[in-house]
Amino acid sequence: MNNLLKQQYIRLIECNNEEISILANTSAFIMQNFDDISWAGFYLLKNDELILGPFQGKIACTNIPLTKGVCGKAASSRKTVLVEDVHQFEGHIACDSESNSEIVVPLIKNNQLYGVLDLDSTSFGRFSKEDQIIFEEIAEILVQHL
């Protein structure tokens, strides 16, 4: 992420101590600053499942078990999962039939899973390793402010 964009993001969230507002503005920030993303949002860990949090995009699945889908895999492994073609991902949960690629970044706060940042695109292969680095950086900044 370029330094100007990084500074804009930090300024957006640093003066806010309401988690829901920080998450909502992070979703909006991603949608406004990155091309070809159809859904950007969060699933938050609650009672051993992921619960839908703030997002931008089409209606979404509300509960995701830790054993299901790209979000569940990223959450349970605590590692980013980048999928070039979601239709080839075993166990993919199709909340939006137009979604073709996805990246999910786990949010780790104080060595505990907080949730995941989930990004979808209607394009195949939309997310690169460079994108992974950028979205992991956003996630790192984010958890410092939650």
From TrEMBL:
MF (Gene Ontology) = kinase activity; L-methionine-(R)-S-oxide reductase activity
Which parts of the chain are coiled coil?
none
Keyword Cell membrane on entry: no
Q: Does the keyword Kinase apply?
A: yes
Q: GO cellular-component terms in the record? A: cytosol
Protein keywords: Kinase, Transferase
The GAF domain sits at: 32-142
Q: Which InterPro entries match?
A: FRMsr_CS (IPR000614), GAF (IPR003018), GAF-like_dom_sf (IPR029016), Phosphatase_reg/MetRdx (IPR051330)
Short name of any one Pfam family annotated for the protein = GAF_2
Family per similarity comment: Belongs to the free Met sulfoxide reductase family.
Cross-referenced PANTHER family: FREE METHIONINE-R-SULFOXIDE REDUCTASE, GAF/PUTATIVE CYTOSKELETAL PROTEIN
Q: What protein am I looking at?
A: GAF domain-containing protein
What is the organism of origin for this protein? Answer: Faecalibacillus faecis
Q: What is the lineage of its organism?
A: Bacteria, Bacillati, Bacillota, Erysipelotrichia, Erysipelotrichales
